[in-house]
């Protein structure tokens, strides 16, 4: 099969958790569905956002699924209330696997992660035979929004160093929320085991990748500041992430690489 045929048929689901992202979601959907990947599906996991993101997502379903394609281009998972980033990803990824996705991407709704990297991530995954590809701010060529002040840069740098040191990992961007997973990698991780919410969800998943001996590639990305709206990951989430790192280390102390 030619590479272009493969890319036309590839079943890739992009899971995006949303809480109050009504202004960002239509643009994200358009950018994702414009990519040269007709088998790409967007799965929105919304927590009954007060700004009506859930209703916006349903309008997008009507708009983009009307063309009669076999696999819906957009699906929505509505949850009753704000239950955290980690559980949103677990539920979304589980649904993506149940629906037969071969590849699952995870990213934020706010354009911090540009959709244009997705074909590149898929290409790298296939060429390198990787289990997971990480869109990384902290490998050579990666960069942060110029608008980030010194304090924010320091906190992000510190969070990375902290979790890398405690967990003894080589991954450069431990809190990266932009990843592409091979189906089998998520099955091997066992999503039912994941306990972390917030930033520590990313740390727990990264830790399991290394512990299980996954083939992992970090590609450089430019991380933009959110375009519209406010951050949902507040101080309590950051504190939770700090102590969860120790919990992750303890919980998986007997875990061995997959054969
Ligand atoms: N479903 C769901 N989505 C969430 C929750 N918390 C955050 N999100 C989404 O997770 C993504 C990341 O959250 P952000 O608020 O952008 O976190 P952040 O990138 O650290 O903060 P900013 O730098 O301000 O963007 C966004 O798409 C949010 O809408 C939640 O409890 N439930
Ligand atoms: Mg963000």
Descriptive report:
This protein is of the alpha/beta class. It has one domain: Alpha-Beta Complex (Spore Coat Polysaccharide Biosynthesis Protein SpsA, Chain A). It has helices at residues 3-9, 25-33, 53-64, 85-98, 117-128, 150-167, 183-189, 198-211, 235-251; strands at residues 12-18, 40-46, 74-78, 103-106, 132-136, 143-144, 179-182, 216-220, 222-223. Strands 3-2-1-4-7-5-8 form a 7-stranded mixed β-sheet, sandwiched between helices. A two-stranded parallel sheet has the order 6-9. Helix 6 (150-167) runs parallel beside helix 9 and helix 8 (198-211) packs parallel to helix 9 (235-251). The longest helix is centred in the middle third of the chain and has 18 residues, at 150-167. The chain is globular, with a radius of gyration of 17 Å. It binds guanosine-5'-triphosphate and magnesium ion (MG). The site of guanosine-5'-triphosphate has 20 residues, from strand 1, strand 2 and helix 4.
Short key terms for the protein model shown above:
259 residues, alpha/beta, Spore Coat Polysaccharide Biosynthesis Protein SpsA, Chain A, seven-stranded mixed beta sheet, two-stranded parallel ribbon, 9 helices, 9 strands, 42% helix, globular, binds guanosine-5'-triphosphate, binds magnesium ion
For the CA atoms, what is the radius of gyration? 17 Å
Percent of sequence in beta strands? 15-25%
Shape: globular
Question: Which structural class is indicated by helix and strand composition?
Answer: alpha/beta
Count of discrete domains: 1
What is the second-level CATH architecture? Alpha-Beta Complex
Order of helices and strands: HEHEHEHEHEEHEHHEEH
Global mean pLDDT:
92
What is the helix content?
A: 40-55%
Look at the structure and give the CATH class.
Answer: Alpha Beta
The N- and C-terminal alpha carbons lie at a distance of 30 Å
| Oligomeric state, counting identical vs distinct chains | single chain
């Amino acid at each position: 099969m030619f590479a272009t045929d493969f890319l036309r048929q590839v079943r890739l689901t992009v899971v995006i958790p949303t809480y109050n992202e009504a202004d960002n979601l239509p643009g994200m959907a358009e950018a994702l569905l414009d990519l040269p990947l007709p088998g790409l599906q967007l799965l929105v996991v919304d927590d009954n956002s007060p700004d009506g993101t859930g209703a916006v997502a349903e309008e997008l379903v009507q708009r983009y699924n009307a063309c009669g394609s076999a696999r819906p281009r957009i699906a929505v998972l509505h949850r009753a209330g704000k239950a955290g980033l980690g559980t949103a990803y677990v539920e979304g990824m589980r649904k993506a696997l149940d629906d037969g996705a071969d590849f699952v991407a995870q990213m934020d709704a706010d354009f911090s992660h540009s959709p244009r990297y997705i074909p590149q991530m898929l290409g790298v995954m296939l060429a390198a035979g990787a289990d997971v590809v990480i869109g990384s701010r902290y490998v050579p060529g990666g960069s942060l929004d110029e608008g980030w002040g010194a304090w924010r840069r320091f906190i992000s740098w510190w969070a990375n160093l902290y979790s890398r040191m405690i967990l003894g990992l080589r991954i450069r961007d431990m809190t990266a929320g932009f990843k592409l997973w091979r189906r089998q990698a998520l099955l091997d991780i066992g999503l039912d085991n994941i306990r972390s919410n917030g930033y520590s969800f990313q740390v727990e998943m990264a830790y399991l990748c290394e512990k299980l001996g996954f083939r992992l590639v970090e590609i450089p990305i430019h991380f933009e500041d959110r375009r519209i709206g406010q951050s949902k990951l507040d101080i309590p989430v950051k504190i939770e992430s700090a102590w969860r790192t120790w919990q992750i280390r303890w919980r998986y102390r007997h875990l061995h690489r997959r054969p």
